[in-house]
Each structure stands twice: as C-alpha cells, then as structure tokens.
Structure to design on (215 residues):
C-alpha cells in the first residue's frame, strides 16, 4: 500500500469543505501530521459514550482497609455481567474533608466475576457528561455501608497518599487522576477506590468517569 500526502497546510485561511477528500498532511521530513482538533474527550462525550458520577454528600461510613471482599465507605464502579459494552476508566477523583486517623495509600483496585455485587447497593446515580442528553450508562456506580464483592480485587494504580495532618496543611497528594483509559472493565468487571488503612467516618468524597465502548 502506498500512502502519499502533501507537505504543508491544506488550507491557509479557511476550513476544508465537507465531502472534499484532501491529501494527508505531511511535514518536510516525510512525517505524517496529526492534530487533536477538539479537547481530548470531546468526541466520546458528544457521541453520548462518556459518563461520570460522584458522591453528592460526604460518605458517613469509614473506608475499608485493604483488598477484601467486604467493601465500605468508598465507590464501586460495576460493569454488569452480560453487558455488551466495555467500561473504560478515564478519571478518578478523591477528596477528604476532615483529618484522617490513619495515614494511607489511596489507589484504584479492580476485579472480575460472573457473580454480581451484593449487599447494600446505594446508587450514586451516574449520568451522561453530555449535559441534558438523557443518555443513560450501562455501568453502575455505588457507594454503600457494606458491599460484598464477588472476588477480592487487586490494586491496579496508586493515585496518592493521605496522612493524619490537619486540613490547614496538605494531607492528600492528588485530587483528580487521569487514568488515560488504561483500565478496562469488561462485563463482570468492577473497580473500587482503595485505601490501605481504615478511613475516618464522614470524611470522603469521590468521583469516577468512564467511556462505554461496544464490544
């Protein structure tokens, strides 16, 4: 296959008209020139494939420590088994609003099973990032006093650490982390916000954002 292009811009002062087939743009070293015209997630959001959810008030339950199957106090994103979409994590946000009793590593853990989540499943009501579109996600986002995970998750990403300092000093290293689509939850997959130590009650806010891609 031979692919040819033209060195330099295709149009200098105007946009290329619809239905026109311009040459591939190239640099003067024979390199192909590509640009991201819109913001990174514009296309997936405009196509109603981007969703997110967040705690609308502080979580009153203390964070579970570690990687067990009983999970409390944080967020769980679940892609139901049998779904026809992969759930691709893009961003995770974490904030603590009171000083913590224990210093802890904060991260993202994940697992997969054909068995559904159980326990007290309180929906965080995720919605489309195209505001007003009415598009609904196929994934489910939960925050609960007690969720039973079907299998123990594994830690996939460390996103920061929280210490025991007062809120007048820095206590958490990062607020929002871009996962760049690097964690994919196939049907039956789930992801949690992880803490290495038990958190303080009534201190946690969290958010998750993702794209849904047909399998």
């Amino acid at each position: 296959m031979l692919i040819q292009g033209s060195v330099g811009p295709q149009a200098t002062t105007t946009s290329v008209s619809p239905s026109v087939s311009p040459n591939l743009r190239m640099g003067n070293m024979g390199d192909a020139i590509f640009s991201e015209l819109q913001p990174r997630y514009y296309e997936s959001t405009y196509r109603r494939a981007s969703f997110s959810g967040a705690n609308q008030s502080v979580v009153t339950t203390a964070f579970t420590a570690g990687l067990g199957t009983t999970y409390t106090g944080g967020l769980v994103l679940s892609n139901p088994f049998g779904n026809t979409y992969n759930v691709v994590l893009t961003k995770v946000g974490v904030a603590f609003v009171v000083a913590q009793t224990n210093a802890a590593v904060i991260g993202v853990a994940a697992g997969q099973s054909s068995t559904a989540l159980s326990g007290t499943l309180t929906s965080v009501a995720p919605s489309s990032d195209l505001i007003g579109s009415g598009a609904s996600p196929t994934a489910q986002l939960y925050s609960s006093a007690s969720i039973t995970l079907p299998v123990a998750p594994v830690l996939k990403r460390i996103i920061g650490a929280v210490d025991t300092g007062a809120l007048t000093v820095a206590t958490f290293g990062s607020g929002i982390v871009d996962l760049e689509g690097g964690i994919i939850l196939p049907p039956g997959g789930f992801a949690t916000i992880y803490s290495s130590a038990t958190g303080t009650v009534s201190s946690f806010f969290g958010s998750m954002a993702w794209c849904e891609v047909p399998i």
